[in-house]
DNA sequence: CGGATCGTTGAGTTGTATCAAGACGGGTGG
DNA sequence: CCACCCGTCTTGATACAACTCAACGATCCG
């Protein structure tokens, strides 16, 4: 039985911020409207002025931007518990689009309800602020990879990150997780061409670092993949790592 | 006569968020310790746990990350009024380093004083949160450029961004501003080699888009440079653009 | 007037893109 | 239950953006 939307949100916030019972209670009473969505659907688009935030409950979503030439850059993937457009709480006009990658379950929360919650619980404000800061930290790390690492290493890094983030919400075990993401989407995320992603994945498999069967990915050599990806989880700012 | 540190902070926050008289008053009383720094000095480093934030008052600073191979990616430049490590207010361990690019004047503000200010003025919390969200938005835009635009266009984009941001704090006029940044640093920012940056700058000059003399840069054809850089200022979320 | 830093230029190399075509595989309809 | 089809994955060949290396020129400064 999957956790409720509210439980998921609490669990996610607690992975980066300690909550009191009172705060957990307040969060559990937050009204969340649950919907399901097909793959490859825009949830919000550049220029939108949403009056609600969207929490991912099941599946994968991404944030992307398009260039004038029509090229797409995926700047973030989300795992269940993430709030892809939390920024819209304070930036009225969206500067990016959010789309489903796989089939998804989504939970919508009115801005008004969140503002109200923040006013009554300043520490929840801090927790949400912190969540947006972790997002920003991930942007910095991805930018460093795209600018200064080669495609092979970026791919390794992305797999490391997904493994750790999915583990944090209980969706990866023994280095195995479901990744319903096409190679074209991976390419848009690491700033490479789909063809090159294909070759890089073959290299990673050939080097014995990963294995994949359908959408299932297994990390065979965690230390090796971390080394290949130059991966240090510090930037994820997870509580369990003690770098709150 | 340059503005005081507090005045600068107020002016900067107001460029993205409206403040009341009372809030301006509170900000003007914030204790800020002013210091000067030479170029190329680290202000804070990866792994630090600072107890204060640093506001840039005069000069240029940058945020950078290093890869295992020793390559550097600059993920952000700052202009006076920016607070490069505002994130440290909620992320205890820094995941990046901040360094001066030119000679700088810096203002240090204790976390305690900021937390106190935020507790007394929830709207200042919102303003500062918003500031970190704009930073994140700039990261997304840079990532899109590095991943999906060519070096020529990235360079044009960076110059557009700096022009707009410097204008917002009164440091650019008629498309002319001081840019005390070496080509090597520009290269680290757009994810290119110094040699290539040199060539791309020559191209921009040859195309009649910019001119430079020493550290002074002049934009000769604003519309042309915007087009070359695929630049849309929406992502800077400036109030004057009406996309608060 | 050295000496250091930064900018410029040329030549050769490489990572990665693009193009094109074929193989696979999971759904759908006959 | 098979045949087909569409999206995805895979492979090979070619092209190009950008890197590296190396040297030289320009500036600034003590």
TrEMBL record, chains A, B:
The keyword Transferase does not apply. Keywords: DNA-binding, Transcription, Transcription regulation. Pfam families: cNMP_binding (PF00027), HTH_Crp_2 (PF13545). Residues 149-223 form the HTH crp-type domain. One of its GO terms (biological process) is regulation of DNA-templated transcription. GO terms for molecular function: DNA binding. InterPro entries: cNMP-bd_dom, cNMP-bd_dom_sf, HTH_CRP, RmlC-like_jellyroll, WH-like_DNA-bd_sf, WH_DNA-bd_sf. This is CRP-like cAMP-binding protein. It comes from Microvirga lupini.
């Amino acid at each position: 039985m999957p956790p409720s939307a509210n439980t998921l949100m609490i669990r996610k916030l607690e992975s980066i911020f300690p909550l009191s019972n009172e705060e957990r209670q307040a969060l559990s009473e937050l009204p969340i409207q649950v919907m399901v969505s097909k793959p490859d659907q825009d949830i919000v688009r550049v220029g939108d002025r949403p009056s609600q935030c969207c929490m991912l409950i099941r599946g994968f979503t991404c944030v992307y931007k398009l260039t004038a030439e029509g090229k797409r850059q995926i700047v973030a993937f989300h795992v269940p518990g993430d709030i892809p457009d939390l920024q819209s709480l304070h930036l009225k006009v969206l500067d990016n689009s959010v789309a489903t990658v796989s089939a998804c379950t989504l939970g919508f929360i009115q801005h008004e309800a969140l503002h109200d919650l923040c006013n009554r619980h300043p520490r929840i404000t801090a927790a949400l602020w912190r969540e947006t800061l972790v997002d920003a930290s991930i942007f910095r790390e991805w930018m460093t990879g795209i600018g200064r690492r080669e495609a092979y290493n970026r791919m390794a890094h992305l797999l490391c990150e997904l493994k750790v983030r999915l583990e944090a919400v209980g969706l990866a075990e023994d280095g195995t997780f479901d990744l319903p993401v096409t190679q074209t989407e991976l390419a848009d995320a690491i700033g490479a061409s789909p063809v090159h992603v294909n070759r890089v994945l073959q290299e990673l498999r050939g080097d014995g670092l990963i294995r994949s069967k359908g959408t299932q990915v297994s990390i065979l050599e965690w230390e090796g993949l971390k080394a290949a990806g130059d991966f240090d989880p510090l930037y994820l700012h997870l509580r369990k790592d003690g770098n709150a």
